[in-house]
Amino acid sequence: MIFETFLTGAILGFSMAAPIGPIGILCIQKTLNFGKLHGFASGFGAATADAIYGVIAAFGLTIISNYFIENAFFFKVVGGVFLIYLGINLLKSSKNLDITREIKKENLMLTYLNTFFLTLTNPMTIIYFTLLFSGFVVPKSSYYMSLILVIGVFSGSILWSGFLTLVSSKFSKKCSSYMEKINKISGMLLIAFALFIFSSALKQF
Questions:
Q1: For labelling, which of 15, 115, 138, 140 has a CA lying 20 to 30 Å from the CA of 86?
Q2: Greatest CA span in the chain, whole angstroms?
């Protein structure tokens, strides 16, 4: 029962992280620019936020989940603004790229916080977990099993980001001469995602 519950959580976490969106783009970009540690830090930030939402959904903390859902417009706007900020920074860095200098400047904690904050400002995550967790029978009184489920979610999310980081790292040397273009494309994609989020928020408003 413990293994099955952990595996269920891992599958949910993996499926949540797998679609390539803003988080995936940042994970790839950080790996190519600054190395595997920054790629892992990006994935760890997103996985931490996923685990927090997983705790809220698994333990039935409806007051907190309702707060995120009811204030979805605000969180979408904040997340969209932050995406634009990151996108513009990437566009600026692509014009004057010095990888060696940037590696020294880039802070691992900042890399972690970027993806943590972005994932946390996505209210759809809590809705996703709430809907999926409702389909699995975990006794409400069993806090231990709920915790195992959340650990599985965290592990699944880490597994995907680790895979994405390792694959990106394999191509880092080949892509080094194209980093200016890669950063520019990454920046434009992040801004495009932000505009999509704004559009979604306006429909909800």
A1: 15
A2: 56
Residue 14 is which amino acid? F
Structural domain includes residue 22 = yes
For residue 95, the model assigns a pLDDT of: 57
Say if CB 43 and CB 158 are below 8 A apart: yes
Q: Which of the four pLDDT bands, split at 50, 70 and 90, describes residue 100?
A: very low
First CA to last CA distance, the chain: 43
Cα 64 to Cα 154: distance, rounded to the nearest angstrom = 19
Query: Among candidates 38, 78, 26, 23, which has minimal Cα distance to 186?
Result: 26
H helix or E strand, kind and range, residue 163: helix 143-170
Tell me the per-residue pLDDT of 124-162, one tens digit each, with 9 for 90 and over.
676 676 666 655 545 554 677 778 888 998 999 999 999
- CA–CA distance, 72 with 91 (Å, rounded to integer): 28
Q: Who's near 167: CB < 8 A, 6+ residues apart?
A: none
Does 93 reside within a domain? no
Q: Does residue 84 lie within any of the structural domains?
A: no
Q: Is residue 98's pLDDT more than 70?
A: no
Confidence (pLDDT) at 105: 57
In a domain, 50, yes or no: yes
What is the extent of the structural domain holding 42? 2-72+98-176
The H or E element containing residue 66 is: helix 62-70
CA distance linking residue 126 with residue 128, whole number of Å: 5
Q: How many domains does the chain have?
A: 1
